[in-house]
Amino acid sequence: MPGWVQLFVVVAVAAAIVLVAHLAGVPGRWAPLVIGGALGLMTALVAGAPRREDGEG
Q: Can you tell me where the transmembrane regions are (predicted)?
């Protein structure tokens, strides 16, 4: 996908997370923690587990 589409998707997902956190009643000072955790989890799920190089061991 082009870079601008990727940027739009990331911003849209972040906005959705903010909306869900707001509707769930998360206090404003905790919102960055919730958003960061959710985006970190999404990154880990997309990236997958680390792989070993063929030359190791």
A: 7-24, 30-49
d(CA 17, CA 21): 6
- How many CB atoms sit inside 10 A of residue 21's CB? 19
Q: What is the pLDDT of residue 51?
A: 73
Tell me if 33 sits within 8 A of 25, measured CB to CB: no
Residue range 1-30: mean pLDDT, rounded? 80
The number of CA neighbours under 13 Å toward the Cβ of 26 is 16
The predicted-structure confidence for 23-53, as pLDDT tens digits, reads as follows 888 887 887 887 788 778 777 777 766 777 7
